[in-house]
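Good day; I would like, with your permission, to put a structural problem before you. A protein sequence and the structure tokens that stand for its backbone fold form the material at issue. I would ask you to consider whether the tokens describe a fold that such a sequence might reasonably adopt. I set the record out below, with my sincere thanks for your time.
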Amino acid sequence: MGGLAALARSAGFRVTGSDAGVYPPMSDQLSALGIELIEGYDAEQIRLAPDLWIVGNVVKRGNPLMEAILERGERFVSGPEWLAREILYGKWVLAVAGTHGKTTTSAMLAWILECAGKAPGFLIGGLPANFGLSARSGAGECFVIEADEYDTAFFDKRSKFVHYRARTAILNNLEFDHADIFGDLADIERQFHNFVRILPGGGRILVKAADPALERVLAQGCWTPVERFGSYDGWSAAVGQDDAEFEVQWKGRPVGQVRWSLNGAHNRMNALAAIGAARHAGIEPGIACEALARFEGVRRRMELRGTVRGISVYDDFAHHPTAIRASLESLRARGGTARILAVLEPRSNTMRAGVMKDALSPSLAEADLVFVYTEGLAWEPGPVFAPLGTRAQCHDQLGALVDAIAAAARAGDQVLVMSNGSFGGIHGRLLARFAETGGDTDQGQASGRR
């Protein structure tokens, strides 16, 4: 919704917004754009009398402001519907869908198009470092959008991405998630097939190879040419001397070389998808590879928040077991034998409900120590993390969690904080605690990101 606000502002509208608990980097971006933010959803805001209310899917019936809008008969629309009507119509839409990697892949794709002179518009659910903003309208014909399968609004239960009318689509992967709106994986597969149904015959679908759920989606019917990535008969990567260098191949033929600041197999897959999608929009793979060499990543994706007394604190958005495992493996590949202290907040609706709790301990296996914030969970954490033995600690008070991490950390450690929320500002609190005993402090962003 912050990205939508930015796009509306650039289109010449006066924009205000209502939300609860907004935090950086989005709050900083909104402030810089001169967009007034009102904390909470008090019904008195109806007096603002805008020409149109754009409603995000966090808003439910019973929300005081929404009830006032309905009572007064004011004009309202969902965010995706407004976006499709006002911004995306007439554009070449490149949509990035999937359970994991949407934000990073969208940022890669937008950057490739930018470097190729396409001046794309984009709407990304994070802050790409190369652009410094999460959304812009763009002067060119291409528009890159992070295409979420979450529901559109309380009055439109279709997935958001069906509104976007993509021409080029990336299906990065598909696992069960969003247990608050989907009953099982088959429910999500049906929504993905609704997305596939409206892709044009002259379009292109980039699909991760050997993903059973995505294959089931395509088996329901597909009317658009498909290219697979992560497969020798499609787009593949041959890793070089180290993890940060790989050769890009199309059907076994080398088409480019990438040397960049990222690492991890998941990022190579993201890159292959972006390169394939860019080629459909007219960008040669060699040009795409050159652009990725200058790709700086996305805020909150393995972002170094600071180093104090030799202890590095990273911020990462991982909150699903698959993403948690990938982030830890990426940090291990980068840091070698350095200890990893994994700090996890199971904050998403799916995690709080305990739907995938049994997968959490295996996903944290790469960490040397594990600290879990358990406030508000609907399940008992002790048995879940028992397989990790003395490596794991659970705390339901944030202060106690910070104390435990500060007591355990030592010079050379890498502290990986994983949450899809602000986590009570724990990153700054940890850096301050580490600094209390003295020593040099080097706070800031790092070039290496997930």
In short: Residues 265-280 form the longest helix (16 residues). The chain has a mean pLDDT of 90. The domain at 2-74 is CATH 3.40.50.720 (Rossmann fold).
